[in-house]
């Protein structure tokens, strides 16, 4: 048993650095983002049956019809949020298994993550504990409503596609803050929302494919 574990540990190191090389080839330039992804063992967040595919640059099933985000998308979104600034107090909507929250926790001290499917939240807790990541404050909540008790946030990152920007999230975005979310029903794209003195400025970025942002709790 311990042999199997140390064996897969070594494989994980090698395949993890290959994953980082692929992210570089695909255009991720921010070294802090690459280092954050390199520091998080993605296989811990994935079902054992799929663990051999943990460092492929693909989305993988999490159960409950949800998927763990593709490393490139995680890297790309964080790179956009980090450009020219720090993340500051961060809210992630859609924690899933906790992978992206673990990456964010490498880059900011204050990180909240909400999830609407209770068993997934429980999984995220176990996964984050397994990698000794105690910084992420996980909450069982409908993220469409944000997290009023901890608002305002400097950064909001949404891991599921909304049909339009949830108004509560705009209200909870601090002045100078940045939110990045996938928007759209069929065709989806990433929308960057910046809260400037003159108002909210929206910029449409890459086409993407995310699971839908849903209402209520499960
Ligand atoms: N961040 C995850 C991705 C999970 S997939 C990762 O690192 O892999 C998106 C997640 O968003 C799913 O777990 C889904 O249950 C969750 N979700 C969808 N709508 C939500 C809502 N309104 N509030 C909170 N979580 C939501």
Automatic annotation (TrEMBL):
Catalytic activity: [protein]-L-isoaspartate + S-adenosyl-L-methionine = [protein]-L-isoaspartate alpha-methyl ester + S-adenosyl-L-homocysteine
Cell compartment(s), UniProt: Cytoplasm
GO CC terms: cytoplasm
Gene3D superfamilies xrefs: Vaccinia Virus protein VP39
Keywords for this protein: Cytoplasm, Methyltransferase, S-adenosyl-L-methionine, Transferase
Stored PANTHER family: PROTEIN-L-ISOASPARTATE O-METHYLTRANSFERASE, PROTEIN-L-ISOASPARTATE(D-ASPARTATE) O-METHYLTRANSFERASE
Name of the protein this chain belongs to: Protein-L-isoaspartate O-methyltransferase
Organism of origin: Candidatus Propionivibrio aalborgensis
